[in-house]
Design brief:
Chain A: Pathway: Carbohydrate metabolism; tricarboxylic acid cycle. The complex is a heterodimer of chains A (248) and B (635). Chain A has 248 residues and is of the alpha+beta class. Chain A has helices at 31-41, 104-111, 131-141, 148-152, 169-180, 189-195, 207-211, 218-235, 237-246, and strands spanning 2-12, 15-25, 61-64, 67-70, 85-88, 95-97, 100-101. In chain A, the strands form two sheets. A five-stranded mixed β-sheet of chain A has the order 2-1-5-3-4. A two-stranded antiparallel sheet of chain A has the order 6-7. Chain B starts with a helix and ends in a 6-residue tail after the last helix. Classes of the chains: A alpha+beta (248), B alpha/beta (635).
Chain lengths: 248, 635
């Protein structure tokens, strides 16, 4: 057991400041344990979002010493002895209170994402897919919607004006997931990503991949293939000719 | 904002109000909307974060994709055995019959389960299931389920938009907690709650309400459950006049993490054992062979050689005892630790590293690999895990009609963990995800039908004012910090109402809980109303309290040991108790306990079992007359 100084941002949409807490830390603890101790013993109204405490629900996202992280998966032994731990809310989203932000941006973008289109000629129970074919989409379905990728993406971080046309990495992997789904009946996923989701605004700096707690290769396995396919479909002369002939 | 503005109550109405946004609630909402009704879903957390995401192993459904001998009758038998024949047989039957359709339906919503070589949904072995039966996605099946249902809801919203319907046809209101149900003349008519983010109140008028609030696990110290699981639905139902059954039956999942202390209780999926992992004590002994109860000797191997052969040849060999139902395994671990053969941190070893290749483990159990590496510095492909029992699930819950999911209160339905009866005294792993699909759909369907036949209800200013006053009470109180009171309650339940129980300790628990009652009534909240966890917990405490009392009372009354209720002073099952459900209700704010007969199985269903097996559970009169008249053809 040792004592540690935590600086936690407290406030709301109108502004706020850091509050300092000296708090006990025990062996094996994660940042969320310490935040809970502050809440239980010093500040019962400290606002923090959490659920599973096992890295599976993606609720407790925050910025710890400037890094976007899940607080439940950030071990205290990551920090130097005596190092002050500073926690701030996700910067890309409006603050509700303390460490809680309004992440409705992400739900609105999901709302405008065309859903899975089931194949018309198959009844429930008749779906047949090979493991190797579902695995590509399964990687993206590991997403726990912690929105750390959305928070980190510099297209929208500090660029409020880019939010309307840009859906962000979370929704790009959703687009890729559906594009690669062996039985999805739509064939315009790439065009939708390019035209409606702002895929073209991404310039592949891979910040999203770096912060993903599920280690999903967002850029390499979703964004780049989607961009290449859009380019292939649009600018390949044979595809262009085919389109002319078959009026696609 | 002035206090007046803050106290303005938002008024909403819908045909079907679904309280809870886990698997059961979302499946109910889908069904009610497909039936043409307007639906509001209340989610205590953000949309898509409910505890369903924590389900790891899979969803049990007798599709027969891996072993074609499987069918609903075998699944039904396993479920009844797992529940020690206390299950509501009709629920177990409906569940076994309908689970495959509910799983296949998810594929049409976009779910991507792991596949067999011939491209069907793959199925894995699990405790208590005779054949590989759990549809799964690695070890993150719950996430797949909730995300699929979440995305189905969104697609229904998109359909509404395309059809020119208003957004109010299907709304998800997230980070909102319901604190009261409104009733009139024995029927529900609406609900009252607050938005977490602002602290503002809302009143929702609805002729049909589906409770799908999950469990009570937060009342225990060592638990796999999150802050949400405070028995809200159980308590709301009791206060509305519904009844709870089987509250003494709590499942302690045998394998929770035990170290480091901060992760104590976090779940380690049963799939580790289904995929070849074994339990060992500190002497290195594979101890489960010593704990096979009489009733399961026919199905479980009594030696390591046979047990190990089963993985590749299940038709010629009996199953490894590590895959006994959860109650048996949890008790065995508890006994080993008590006998001084536990690990350094008070658990036992779960070893898959010495039995399967690193590659296999990473492929089959990716999130376990990740979890141990990140949280405990343990590489499960190279070292054993330390595990011990953790409070996981309550079999007990709202008494419902098997076919309609209707409670005793008109218009009030329940599905998923908050309902009771389906799992009897112990739930098999994998039967929760299928339960919430089967009965979520049924609840949604019957709630929609009921709403169609009802007048839109009206809420009165007086009842809304009273609910407002009750919700704000903690701000005016001068009592204790809610977090301290929660710890006190968790300590009582953990110490005295845990995995092994004794009459004297249960009496002590009831005394100690009673002493908490006034302290909870006087719990105080500080700060403002916007996103104030202390205030929210203060309001949850009374729900946790009433559930804890119901559990302790029923546990004291039932002087036998069965499934998730073990009485050290009353070991063994008593066939007389098998016929009895303990029913909790609320009278003048006090929990009352009565006895009611467990529904008798039909001769056709009894005929699915050998008489010799039934004789281990039932009195002779119960099985003799009916088995004589039944046929064996359905086997």
């Amino acid at each position: 057991m040792s004592e540690r100084t935590f600086r936690v941002w407290r406030g709301d949409a109108d502004g706020g400041d850091f509050a300092e807490f000296d708090v006990e830390v025990n062996e094996g603890e994660v940042v969320l344990d310490v935040v809970h101790r502050i809440q239980a013993e010093q500040a019962p109204d400290l606002a923090v979002r959490w659920n599973c405490k096992a890295g599976k629900c993606g609720s407790c996202s925050a910025e710890v010493n400037g890094m976007p992280r899940l607080m439940c998966m950030t071990r205290m032994n990551l920090f130097e002895e005596g190092q002050t731990v500073t926690i701030t809310p996700l910067r890309t989203f409006p603050v509700v209170r303390d460490l809680v932000t309004d992440v409705s941006f992400n739900y609105e973008k999901a709302r405008s994402m065309p859903a899975f289109a089931p194949p018309q000629d198959l009844e429930p129970g008749e779906y047949r897919m090979q493991q190797v074919d579902v695995e590509r989409s399964q990687e993206f379905r590991k997403c726990i919607e912690c929105f750390l990728c959305q928070n980190t993406c510099h297209v929208v971080r500090d660029h409020e004006e880019n939010k309307p046309p840009f859906s962000g990495p979370r929704l790009f992997i959703r687009a890729a997931e559906l594009d690669m789904h062996p039985l999805d009946a739509r064939d315009d996923r790439r065009e939708l990503a390019q035209d409606d989701q702002g895929l073209g605004m991404c310039n592949i700096t891979k910040c999203c991949t770096e912060v993903c707690p599920e280690h999903i290769k967002i850029t390499d396995n979703a964004i780049i293939p989607m961009k290449e396919r859009v380019a292939g479909d649009r600018y390949d002369p044979l595809v262009w000719l085919g389109r002319k002939i078959f009026r696609k | 904002m002035s206090d007046n503005d803050m106290n303005e109550v938002e008024h909403l109405s819908c045909d079907v109000l679904v309280i809870g946004a886990g698997g059961a609630g979302l499946r109910a909402a889908v069904e009610a909307r497909l039936a043409g009704k307007s639906v509001i879903v209340i989610s205590k957390s953000l949309f898509g974060k409910a505890h369903t995401v924590m389900a790891e192993g899979g969803a049990a459904a007798a599709m027969g994709n891996v072993n074609s001998n499987d069918n609903w009758q075998v699944h039904f038998r396993d479920t009844m055995r797992g529940g020690k024949f206390l299950n509501n047989y009709r629920m177990a039957e409906l569940h076994a019959r309908e689970a495959p359709d509910r799983i296949w339906e998810l594929e049409t919503y976009g779910a991507l389960f792991d596949r067999t070589a011939d491209g069907k949904i793959s199925q894995r072995n699990f405790g208590g299931h005779e054949y590989p039966r759990l549809a799964h996605v690695g070890d993150r099946t719950g996430l797949e389920l909730i995300r699929t249902l979440q995305q189905k809801l969104v697609s229904l919203q998109q359909d509404d938009e395309a059809a020119g319907e208003g957004e109010d046809k299907l709304q998800v209101i997230d980070e909102t907690t319901i604190t009261e149900l409104f009733t009139a003349g024995g029927a529900v008519k609406g609900a009252f709650g607050y938005r977490r983010g602002t602290g503002r109140f809302m009143a929702i008028a609805a002729p049909s309400i589906v409770l799908a609030t999950g469990g009570i696990g937060r009342s225990f110290k060592v638990t796999s459950n999150s802050w949400e699981y405070t028995g809200d639905g159980h308590a709301l139902a009791l206060r509305a006049g519904a009844k709870l059954i089987n509250m003494e039956f709590i499942q302690f999942h045998p394998t929770g993490m035990v170290w480091p202390p901060s992760v104590r209780g976090i779940l380690v999926t049963e799939s580790v054992r289904g995929d070849g992992g074994v339990l060992k004590n500190s002497e290195g002994k594979r101890f489960m062979f010593d704990y096979i109860p009489e009733v399961f000797k026919a199905q479980y191997a009594d030696n390591p050689d046979e047990a190990d052969r089963w993985y590749t040849d299940p038709d010629q060999n009996r199953r490894p005892p590590e895959l006994l139902p959860r109650d048996e395994v949890a008790r065995a671990i508890n006994s080993e630790v008590k006998a001084g053969r536990g690990t350094e941190h008070g658990g036992v070893y779960l070893d898959i590293a010495s039995r399967r290749s690193a590659e296999y483990i990473r492929e089959r159990l990716p999130s376990m690999h990740h979890q141990f590496k990140e949280l405990a510095d343990v590489d499960i492909t190279a070292e054993p895990m330390e595990v011990g029992p953790t409070c996981h699930y309550i079999m007990g819950g709202i008494e419902v009609d098997a076919d309609t999911a209707a409670s005793a209160v008109t218009g009030l339905f329940a599905a998923g963990e908050v309902s009771g009866g389906m799992h009897g005294s112990n739930r098999l792993g994998g039967n929760s995800l299928s339960d919430l699909l089967v009965f979520g759909k049924r609840a949604g369907q019957h709630a929609a039908a009921h709403a169609g036949a009802s007048e839109p209800p009206k809420l009165t200013a007086a009842e809304i004012d009273a609910a407002t006053e009750e919700a704000l009470r903690p701000f005016g109180n001068d009592g204790e910090n809610p977090f301290a009171l929660q710890s006190a309650m968790q300590a009582i339940n953990g110490r005295l109402v845990g995995i092994i129980r004794r009459a004297g300790e249960l009496e002590e628990a009831l005394t100690e809980l009673a002493a908490l009652k006034d302290r909870i009534a006087n719990v105080s909240a500080s700060g403002g109303r916007a996103y104030n966890p202390g205030w929210h917990l203060a309001l949850d405490l009374r729900n946790m309290y009433v559930c804890s009392v119901a559990t302790a009372m029923a546990a004291l009354e039932r002087d036998e040991s069965r499934g998730g209720h073990t009485r050290e002073d009353a070991p063994g099952m008593n066939p007389q108790w098998r016929k009895v459900n303990l029913v909790a209700s609320l009278e003048d704010e006090e929990v009352r306990l009565t006895r009611r007969a467990v529904p008798s199985m039909t001769p056709e269903l009894l005929g699915l079992f050998e008489t010799s097996e039934l004789s281990k559970y039932m009195t002779p009169e119960e099985y003799q007359s009916s088995t004589e008249s039944s046929t064996e053809e359905s086997r």
